[in-house]
Amino acid sequence: xxxxVVGTGYVGLVTGTCFAxxxxxxxxxxxxxxxIEMLRAGGIPIYEPGLEELVKRNVKEHRLSFxxxxxxxxxxxxxxxxxxxxxxxxxxxxxxxxxxxxxxxxGRHLTRACVVVDKSTVPVGSAEKVAEAxxxxxxxxxxxxxxxxxxxxxxxxxxxxxxxxxxxxxxxxRGRAVMAELYAPFVRAEQPLLFMDLRSAELTxxxxxxxxxxxxSFMNEMAALCERLxxxxxxxxxxxxxxxxxxxxxLFPGVGFGGSCFPKDVRAVMTMARHVGxxxxxxxxxxxxxxxxKRWLVEKATxxxxxxxxxxxxxxxxxxxxKTDDMREAPAINVIEGLLGGGAKVRAYDPVAAGVAARLxxxxxxxxxxxxxxxxxxADALMLVTEWNEFRQPDLVRLKATMRSPxxxxxxxxxxxAKTRAAGFTYYGVGRNAAEMG
Length: 438
Ligand SMILES: NC(=O)c1ccc[n+]([C@@H]2O[C@H](COP(=O)([O-])OP(=O)(O)OC[C@H]3O[C@@H](n4cnc5c(N)ncnc54)[C@H](O)[C@@H]3O)[C@@H](O)[C@H]2O)c1
Description:
6-stranded parallel β-sheet
Protein backbone atom coordinates (compact mmCIF):
# COMPACT_ATOMS: atom_id res chain seq x y z
CA UNK A 1 0.00 0.00 0.00
CA UNK A 2 1.01 3.61 -0.39
CA UNK A 3 1.15 5.12 3.08
CA UNK A 4 1.76 8.66 4.31
CA VAL A 5 2.79 9.38 7.89
CA VAL A 6 2.28 13.00 8.88
CA GLY A 7 4.59 14.03 11.74
CA THR A 8 8.06 12.51 11.75
CA GLY A 9 8.77 12.49 15.50
CA TYR A 10 9.28 9.58 17.88
CA VAL A 11 5.99 7.94 16.89
CA GLY A 12 5.74 8.95 13.21
CA LEU A 13 9.27 7.96 12.22
CA VAL A 14 9.02 4.59 13.96
CA THR A 15 5.55 3.91 12.50
CA GLY A 16 6.56 4.85 8.96
CA THR A 17 9.78 2.86 9.12
CA CYS A 18 8.12 -0.27 10.50
CA PHE A 19 5.41 -0.23 7.82
CA ALA A 20 8.10 0.23 5.16
CA UNK A 21 9.94 -2.73 6.65
CA UNK A 22 6.91 -4.94 5.90
CA UNK A 23 6.99 -3.94 2.23
CA UNK A 24 4.75 -0.89 1.95
CA UNK A 25 5.78 2.34 0.24
CA UNK A 26 5.88 5.01 2.91
CA UNK A 27 6.36 8.76 2.73
CA UNK A 28 7.09 10.49 6.05
CA UNK A 29 6.08 14.13 6.09
CA UNK A 30 6.93 16.88 8.53
CA UNK A 31 6.56 20.67 8.60
CA UNK A 32 9.99 20.88 10.23
CA UNK A 33 12.19 21.34 7.15
CA UNK A 34 15.41 20.83 9.16
CA UNK A 35 14.25 17.41 10.32
CA ILE A 36 13.37 16.37 6.77
CA GLU A 37 16.67 17.68 5.38
CA MET A 38 18.56 15.72 8.01
CA LEU A 39 16.64 12.51 7.23
CA ARG A 40 17.21 12.98 3.51
CA ALA A 41 20.91 13.38 4.19
CA GLY A 42 20.97 10.05 6.05
CA GLY A 43 20.78 11.45 9.59
CA ILE A 44 18.33 10.48 12.35
CA PRO A 45 16.90 13.39 14.36
CA ILE A 46 16.19 11.32 17.49
CA TYR A 47 18.03 8.67 19.48
CA GLU A 48 16.14 5.39 19.34
CA PRO A 49 18.00 2.06 19.45
CA GLY A 50 17.85 0.13 16.16
CA LEU A 51 16.05 2.87 14.25
CA GLU A 52 18.94 4.16 12.16
CA GLU A 53 19.72 0.79 10.58
CA LEU A 54 16.05 0.23 9.74
CA VAL A 55 15.60 3.70 8.22
CA LYS A 56 18.75 3.31 6.11
CA ARG A 57 17.73 -0.08 4.77
CA ASN A 58 14.25 1.04 3.77
CA VAL A 59 15.48 4.27 2.20
CA LYS A 60 18.04 2.29 0.21
CA GLU A 61 15.35 -0.07 -1.01
CA HIS A 62 13.13 2.88 -2.00
CA ARG A 63 10.31 2.01 0.34
CA LEU A 64 10.83 5.00 2.64
CA SER A 65 11.18 8.67 1.73
CA PHE A 66 10.83 12.05 3.39
CA UNK A 67 9.17 15.29 2.36
CA UNK A 68 7.70 18.57 3.60
CA UNK A 69 5.21 18.63 0.71
CA UNK A 70 1.67 17.38 1.30
CA UNK A 71 1.02 17.34 -2.47
CA UNK A 72 4.02 15.08 -3.08
CA UNK A 73 3.29 12.82 -0.09
CA UNK A 74 -0.40 12.28 -0.80
CA UNK A 75 -0.08 11.51 -4.50
CA UNK A 76 -1.83 8.13 -4.75
CA UNK A 77 -1.87 7.59 -0.96
CA UNK A 78 -4.34 4.97 0.28
CA UNK A 79 -3.68 5.44 3.99
CA UNK A 80 -2.59 8.57 5.88
CA UNK A 81 -1.47 8.39 9.50
CA UNK A 82 -1.55 11.49 11.67
CA UNK A 83 1.29 11.28 14.22
CA UNK A 84 1.84 14.94 15.11
CA UNK A 85 2.29 16.23 18.65
CA UNK A 86 -0.64 16.84 21.02
CA UNK A 87 1.01 18.96 23.73
CA UNK A 88 -0.99 20.12 26.73
CA UNK A 89 -3.09 23.19 26.05
CA UNK A 90 -3.69 25.98 28.55
CA UNK A 91 -6.25 24.15 30.68
CA UNK A 92 -4.58 20.76 30.64
CA UNK A 93 -6.53 19.41 27.67
CA UNK A 94 -4.58 18.09 24.69
CA UNK A 95 -4.01 20.79 22.08
CA UNK A 96 -5.56 19.49 18.86
CA UNK A 97 -4.40 22.29 16.57
CA UNK A 98 -1.61 20.27 14.94
CA UNK A 99 -3.85 17.24 14.41
CA UNK A 100 -6.59 19.33 12.82
CA UNK A 101 -4.12 21.31 10.70
CA UNK A 102 -2.69 18.01 9.45
CA UNK A 103 -6.20 16.68 8.73
CA UNK A 104 -7.11 19.77 6.68
CA UNK A 105 -3.91 19.50 4.66
CA UNK A 106 -4.43 15.77 4.09
CA GLY A 107 -7.99 16.46 2.91
CA ARG A 108 -6.83 19.21 0.57
CA HIS A 109 -4.29 16.94 -1.11
CA LEU A 110 -6.16 13.64 -1.40
CA THR A 111 -5.96 12.20 -4.89
CA ARG A 112 -8.16 9.17 -4.23
CA ALA A 113 -10.24 7.48 -1.49
CA CYS A 114 -8.14 7.27 1.65
CA VAL A 115 -8.22 5.87 5.18
CA VAL A 116 -7.06 8.59 7.58
CA VAL A 117 -5.71 7.14 10.82
CA ASP A 118 -5.24 9.15 13.97
CA LYS A 119 -2.19 7.80 15.79
CA SER A 120 -1.61 10.85 17.97
CA THR A 121 -2.98 10.63 21.52
CA VAL A 122 -6.17 12.67 21.32
CA PRO A 123 -9.17 13.41 23.54
CA VAL A 124 -12.36 11.44 23.14
CA GLY A 125 -14.38 12.85 20.25
CA SER A 126 -11.34 13.90 18.20
CA ALA A 127 -12.07 11.45 15.38
CA GLU A 128 -15.29 13.37 14.73
CA LYS A 129 -13.33 16.63 14.64
CA VAL A 130 -10.77 15.09 12.28
CA ALA A 131 -13.64 13.98 10.02
CA GLU A 132 -15.03 17.53 10.04
CA ALA A 133 -11.61 19.00 9.20
CA UNK A 134 -11.21 16.52 6.34
CA UNK A 135 -14.72 17.23 5.08
CA UNK A 136 -13.89 20.94 4.85
CA UNK A 137 -11.14 20.31 2.29
CA UNK A 138 -11.45 16.84 0.77
CA UNK A 139 -12.65 16.18 -2.78
CA UNK A 140 -12.40 12.39 -2.34
CA UNK A 141 -14.06 9.98 0.11
CA UNK A 142 -12.28 9.11 3.35
CA UNK A 143 -12.71 6.88 6.41
CA UNK A 144 -11.42 7.99 9.81
CA UNK A 145 -9.78 5.43 12.10
CA UNK A 146 -8.35 5.82 15.61
CA UNK A 147 -5.20 3.78 16.22
CA UNK A 148 -3.50 4.95 19.42
CA UNK A 149 0.16 4.05 19.80
CA UNK A 150 1.57 2.24 22.84
CA UNK A 151 5.29 2.12 21.99
CA UNK A 152 7.86 3.04 24.63
CA UNK A 153 10.74 5.31 23.70
CA UNK A 154 13.97 3.34 24.07
CA UNK A 155 12.23 0.12 22.92
CA UNK A 156 10.04 1.63 20.22
CA UNK A 157 10.96 -0.66 17.32
CA UNK A 158 10.43 -3.81 19.31
CA UNK A 159 7.17 -2.53 20.75
CA UNK A 160 5.90 -1.65 17.28
CA UNK A 161 7.05 -4.86 15.66
CA UNK A 162 5.86 -7.09 18.53
CA UNK A 163 3.00 -5.26 20.23
CA UNK A 164 1.14 -6.73 23.21
CA UNK A 165 -2.00 -5.73 21.33
CA UNK A 166 -3.12 -3.27 18.68
CA UNK A 167 -6.10 -1.04 19.41
CA UNK A 168 -8.14 0.17 16.45
CA UNK A 169 -11.25 2.32 16.62
CA UNK A 170 -13.34 2.07 13.46
CA UNK A 171 -16.66 3.29 12.15
CA UNK A 172 -16.57 1.59 8.74
CA UNK A 173 -15.86 -1.78 7.18
CA ARG A 174 -13.29 -0.25 4.87
CA GLY A 175 -11.36 1.24 7.80
CA ARG A 176 -11.41 -2.12 9.55
CA ALA A 177 -10.25 -4.07 6.47
CA VAL A 178 -7.34 -1.73 5.72
CA MET A 179 -6.11 -1.79 9.33
CA ALA A 180 -6.41 -5.57 9.54
CA GLU A 181 -4.24 -5.87 6.43
CA LEU A 182 -1.67 -3.33 7.62
CA TYR A 183 -1.20 -4.90 11.04
CA ALA A 184 -1.31 -8.57 9.97
CA PRO A 185 2.52 -8.92 9.92
CA PHE A 186 2.80 -7.52 13.45
CA VAL A 187 0.25 -9.78 15.15
CA ARG A 188 1.35 -13.14 13.78
CA ALA A 189 2.02 -14.40 17.32
CA GLU A 190 -1.72 -14.08 17.91
CA GLN A 191 -1.52 -10.78 19.72
CA PRO A 192 -5.02 -9.34 19.86
CA LEU A 193 -6.00 -6.85 17.20
CA LEU A 194 -8.74 -5.16 19.15
CA PHE A 195 -11.36 -3.44 17.02
CA MET A 196 -13.67 -1.13 18.92
CA ASP A 197 -15.61 2.09 18.44
CA LEU A 198 -13.72 5.33 17.89
CA ARG A 199 -14.38 6.88 21.30
CA SER A 200 -13.37 3.76 23.22
CA ALA A 201 -10.11 3.52 21.24
CA GLU A 202 -9.30 7.15 22.02
CA LEU A 203 -9.95 6.65 25.71
CA THR A 204 -8.06 3.33 25.88
CA UNK A 205 -4.77 5.13 25.27
CA UNK A 206 -5.36 7.58 28.10
CA UNK A 207 -6.63 4.85 30.40
CA UNK A 208 -3.42 2.85 29.84
CA UNK A 209 -1.11 5.77 30.62
CA UNK A 210 -3.19 6.90 33.58
CA UNK A 211 -3.09 3.38 35.03
CA UNK A 212 0.70 3.09 34.59
CA UNK A 213 1.26 6.53 36.12
CA UNK A 214 -0.98 5.49 39.02
CA UNK A 215 1.16 2.43 39.71
CA UNK A 216 4.28 4.58 39.82
CA SER A 217 2.77 7.17 42.15
CA PHE A 218 1.35 4.39 44.33
CA MET A 219 4.84 2.96 44.76
CA ASN A 220 6.35 6.38 45.39
CA GLU A 221 3.80 6.95 48.13
CA MET A 222 4.56 3.47 49.48
CA ALA A 223 8.28 4.36 49.42
CA ALA A 224 7.59 7.45 51.52
CA LEU A 225 5.71 5.25 53.98
CA CYS A 226 8.61 2.77 54.04
CA GLU A 227 11.05 5.55 54.89
CA ARG A 228 8.93 6.58 57.84
CA LEU A 229 8.18 3.06 59.07
CA UNK A 230 11.67 1.62 58.60
CA UNK A 231 10.66 -0.84 55.88
CA UNK A 232 12.46 -1.42 52.57
CA UNK A 233 10.34 -0.61 49.52
CA UNK A 234 12.39 -2.92 47.29
CA UNK A 235 11.42 -5.89 49.41
CA UNK A 236 7.80 -4.75 49.52
CA UNK A 237 7.87 -4.30 45.72
CA UNK A 238 9.11 -7.85 45.18
CA UNK A 239 6.56 -9.10 47.63
CA UNK A 240 3.60 -7.60 45.88
CA UNK A 241 4.89 -7.88 42.30
CA UNK A 242 5.02 -11.66 42.56
CA UNK A 243 1.27 -11.67 43.05
CA UNK A 244 -0.06 -12.48 39.58
CA UNK A 245 -2.96 -10.14 40.11
CA UNK A 246 -0.45 -7.29 40.49
CA UNK A 247 2.66 -8.19 38.43
CA UNK A 248 6.11 -6.56 38.48
CA UNK A 249 6.11 -3.88 35.74
CA UNK A 250 5.83 -0.22 36.68
CA LEU A 251 6.26 -0.79 40.40
CA PHE A 252 9.62 0.92 40.68
CA PRO A 253 9.78 3.89 43.01
CA GLY A 254 12.07 6.71 41.96
CA VAL A 255 12.23 10.42 41.31
CA GLY A 256 8.85 10.62 39.60
CA PHE A 257 7.58 9.98 36.10
CA GLY A 258 8.23 12.39 33.25
CA GLY A 259 8.40 12.28 29.49
CA SER A 260 6.16 13.51 26.74
CA CYS A 261 3.23 11.23 27.62
CA PHE A 262 2.44 10.36 31.24
CA PRO A 263 2.29 13.88 32.72
CA LYS A 264 0.30 15.36 29.85
CA ASP A 265 -2.00 12.35 29.49
CA VAL A 266 -2.81 12.28 33.21
CA ARG A 267 -3.69 15.99 32.99
CA ALA A 268 -5.74 15.40 29.83
CA VAL A 269 -7.83 12.67 31.49
CA MET A 270 -8.57 14.96 34.43
CA THR A 271 -9.59 17.74 32.04
CA MET A 272 -11.78 15.45 29.92
CA ALA A 273 -13.46 14.24 33.11
CA ARG A 274 -13.98 17.79 34.40
CA HIS A 275 -15.66 18.77 31.13
CA VAL A 276 -18.30 16.11 31.73
CA GLY A 277 -18.76 16.94 35.40
CA UNK A 278 -16.51 14.26 36.90
CA UNK A 279 -13.75 15.02 39.38
CA UNK A 280 -11.10 12.35 38.75
CA UNK A 281 -9.86 12.50 42.32
CA UNK A 282 -7.48 9.57 42.05
CA UNK A 283 -5.45 11.15 39.24
CA UNK A 284 -5.19 14.44 41.13
CA UNK A 285 -3.35 12.52 43.83
CA UNK A 286 -1.24 10.70 41.24
CA UNK A 287 -0.08 14.06 39.92
CA UNK A 288 0.47 15.54 43.39
CA UNK A 289 2.58 12.57 44.52
CA UNK A 290 4.62 12.86 41.33
CA UNK A 291 5.31 16.56 41.86
CA UNK A 292 6.48 15.80 45.40
CA UNK A 293 8.63 12.92 44.21
CA LYS A 294 10.47 15.11 41.71
CA ARG A 295 11.67 17.16 44.71
CA TRP A 296 12.89 14.09 46.64
CA LEU A 297 16.56 14.28 45.61
CA VAL A 298 16.98 17.98 46.28
CA GLU A 299 15.15 17.76 49.61
CA LYS A 300 17.28 14.81 50.77
CA ALA A 301 20.50 16.59 49.77
CA THR A 302 19.41 19.83 51.43
CA UNK A 303 18.65 17.94 54.63
CA UNK A 304 22.00 16.18 54.47
CA UNK A 305 24.10 19.29 53.92
CA UNK A 306 21.96 21.84 55.80
CA UNK A 307 22.28 24.10 52.75
CA UNK A 308 23.21 23.51 49.12
CA UNK A 309 24.80 26.94 48.72
CA UNK A 310 28.29 26.57 47.27
CA UNK A 311 28.04 22.78 47.01
CA UNK A 312 28.92 21.01 43.78
CA UNK A 313 26.41 18.32 42.87
CA UNK A 314 26.95 15.77 40.13
CA UNK A 315 23.92 14.47 38.24
CA UNK A 316 24.02 11.19 36.31
CA UNK A 317 21.29 10.88 33.71
CA UNK A 318 19.20 13.64 32.15
CA UNK A 319 16.82 11.94 29.71
CA UNK A 320 13.41 11.14 31.20
CA UNK A 321 14.34 7.47 31.01
CA UNK A 322 17.23 5.37 29.67
CA LYS A 323 17.79 4.71 25.95
CA THR A 324 16.28 7.97 24.74
CA ASP A 325 17.44 11.56 24.30
CA ASP A 326 13.96 12.87 25.15
CA MET A 327 13.96 15.39 28.01
CA ARG A 328 10.33 16.50 27.77
CA GLU A 329 9.13 16.90 31.39
CA ALA A 330 12.19 14.94 32.56
CA PRO A 331 12.59 14.83 36.37
CA ALA A 332 16.22 15.88 35.78
CA ILE A 333 14.94 19.33 34.85
CA ASN A 334 13.22 19.73 38.23
CA VAL A 335 16.28 18.35 40.00
CA ILE A 336 18.70 20.74 38.28
CA GLU A 337 16.35 23.72 38.74
CA GLY A 338 16.10 22.81 42.44
CA LEU A 339 19.87 22.53 42.81
CA LEU A 340 20.52 25.83 41.04
CA GLY A 341 17.75 27.45 43.12
CA GLY A 342 19.49 26.24 46.29
CA GLY A 343 22.78 27.85 45.20
CA ALA A 344 24.53 24.63 44.14
CA LYS A 345 26.83 24.18 41.15
CA VAL A 346 25.74 21.37 38.83
CA ARG A 347 27.95 18.99 36.87
CA ALA A 348 25.84 16.64 34.76
CA TYR A 349 26.37 13.73 32.39
CA ASP A 350 24.07 11.78 30.09
CA PRO A 351 25.20 9.34 27.38
CA VAL A 352 22.90 10.80 24.70
CA ALA A 353 20.80 13.70 26.02
CA ALA A 354 23.67 16.16 26.57
CA GLY A 355 22.86 18.05 23.35
CA VAL A 356 19.22 18.50 24.36
CA ALA A 357 20.29 19.51 27.88
CA ALA A 358 22.79 22.06 26.53
CA ARG A 359 19.93 23.86 24.75
CA LEU A 360 17.64 23.62 27.79
CA UNK A 361 20.16 24.98 30.30
CA UNK A 362 21.99 27.35 27.98
CA UNK A 363 23.59 30.19 29.96
CA UNK A 364 22.62 28.73 33.37
CA UNK A 365 26.13 27.58 34.29
CA UNK A 366 25.36 23.83 34.22
CA UNK A 367 28.54 21.95 33.31
CA UNK A 368 27.86 19.08 30.88
CA UNK A 369 30.70 16.65 31.44
CA UNK A 370 32.24 14.36 28.85
CA UNK A 371 31.84 11.25 30.98
CA UNK A 372 30.40 10.05 34.30
CA UNK A 373 33.67 10.32 36.21
CA UNK A 374 34.40 13.77 34.81
CA UNK A 375 30.99 14.83 36.15
CA UNK A 376 31.87 13.83 39.72
CA UNK A 377 35.19 15.70 39.85
CA UNK A 378 35.16 17.71 43.08
CA ALA A 379 31.48 16.89 43.73
CA ASP A 380 30.07 17.00 47.23
CA ALA A 381 27.35 14.54 46.22
CA LEU A 382 26.27 12.42 43.28
CA MET A 383 22.62 12.07 42.28
CA LEU A 384 21.48 9.26 40.03
CA VAL A 385 18.46 10.50 38.08
CA THR A 386 18.23 8.21 35.00
CA GLU A 387 19.23 4.56 35.33
CA TRP A 388 21.26 4.10 32.13
CA ASN A 389 22.95 0.68 32.17
CA GLU A 390 26.39 2.25 32.32
CA PHE A 391 25.55 3.72 35.75
CA ARG A 392 24.45 0.45 37.30
CA GLN A 393 27.85 -0.83 38.47
CA PRO A 394 29.95 2.26 39.22
CA ASP A 395 33.61 1.94 40.13
CA LEU A 396 33.18 2.91 43.78
CA VAL A 397 36.91 3.27 44.43
CA ARG A 398 37.31 5.68 41.51
CA LEU A 399 34.14 7.49 42.50
CA LYS A 400 35.34 8.01 46.05
CA ALA A 401 38.77 9.17 44.93
CA THR A 402 37.25 11.69 42.49
CA MET A 403 34.49 13.17 44.66
CA ARG A 404 35.09 15.77 47.35
CA SER A 405 32.78 13.97 49.75
CA PRO A 406 31.36 10.44 49.38
CA UNK A 407 27.63 11.07 49.33
CA UNK A 408 25.38 9.33 46.81
CA UNK A 409 21.66 9.75 46.30
CA UNK A 410 20.26 6.88 44.28
CA UNK A 411 17.07 8.21 42.73
CA UNK A 412 16.34 4.88 41.02
CA UNK A 413 17.30 2.35 43.69
CA UNK A 414 19.74 0.60 41.36
CA UNK A 415 22.81 0.55 43.59
CA UNK A 416 23.50 -2.03 46.27
CA UNK A 417 22.99 0.00 49.44
CA ALA A 418 25.07 -2.27 51.70
CA LYS A 419 27.99 -2.48 49.25
CA THR A 420 27.97 1.26 48.67
CA ARG A 421 27.96 1.97 52.39
CA ALA A 422 30.73 -0.59 52.95
CA ALA A 423 32.84 1.31 50.40
CA GLY A 424 32.59 4.36 52.67
CA PHE A 425 29.69 6.26 51.10
CA THR A 426 26.69 7.85 52.70
CA TYR A 427 23.90 6.25 50.66
CA TYR A 428 20.34 7.43 50.21
CA GLY A 429 17.80 5.36 48.26
CA VAL A 430 14.09 5.96 47.72
CA GLY A 431 12.19 4.21 50.52
CA ARG A 432 15.17 2.11 51.55
CA ASN A 433 15.47 3.08 55.18
CA ALA A 434 15.41 -0.48 56.46
CA ALA A 435 18.67 -1.26 54.70
CA GLU A 436 20.13 1.96 56.12
CA MET A 437 19.16 0.92 59.63
CA GLY A 438 20.17 -2.71 59.20
N1 LIG B 1 6.71 9.69 22.22
C1 LIG B 1 6.08 8.62 22.66
O1 LIG B 1 6.65 7.75 23.34
C2 LIG B 1 4.63 8.39 22.35
C3 LIG B 1 4.06 7.13 22.53
C4 LIG B 1 2.73 6.93 22.20
C5 LIG B 1 1.96 7.98 21.72
N2 LIG B 1 2.52 9.21 21.57
C6 LIG B 1 1.69 10.28 21.02
O2 LIG B 1 2.02 10.40 19.64
C7 LIG B 1 1.95 11.77 19.21
C8 LIG B 1 3.29 12.21 18.65
O3 LIG B 1 4.25 12.14 19.67
P1 LIG B 1 5.82 12.27 19.37
O4 LIG B 1 6.52 12.02 20.65
O5 LIG B 1 6.16 11.45 18.18
O6 LIG B 1 5.89 13.81 19.00
P2 LIG B 1 7.14 14.62 18.36
O7 LIG B 1 7.05 15.98 18.92
O8 LIG B 1 8.39 13.83 18.50
O9 LIG B 1 6.78 14.66 16.79
C9 LIG B 1 5.70 15.36 16.27
C10 LIG B 1 6.10 15.86 14.89
O10 LIG B 1 4.95 16.40 14.23
C11 LIG B 1 5.39 17.49 13.42
N3 LIG B 1 4.22 18.32 13.06
C12 LIG B 1 3.50 19.17 13.83
N4 LIG B 1 2.49 19.71 13.12
C13 LIG B 1 2.55 19.17 11.88
C14 LIG B 1 1.77 19.30 10.69
N5 LIG B 1 0.68 20.09 10.66
N6 LIG B 1 2.13 18.62 9.60
C15 LIG B 1 3.20 17.80 9.63
N7 LIG B 1 3.98 17.62 10.71
C16 LIG B 1 3.66 18.29 11.82
C17 LIG B 1 6.42 18.17 14.29
O11 LIG B 1 7.28 19.01 13.54
C18 LIG B 1 7.14 16.97 14.90
O12 LIG B 1 8.26 16.58 14.14
C19 LIG B 1 1.50 12.54 20.46
O13 LIG B 1 0.10 12.67 20.45
C20 LIG B 1 1.92 11.65 21.61
O14 LIG B 1 1.14 11.84 22.75
C21 LIG B 1 3.84 9.43 21.84
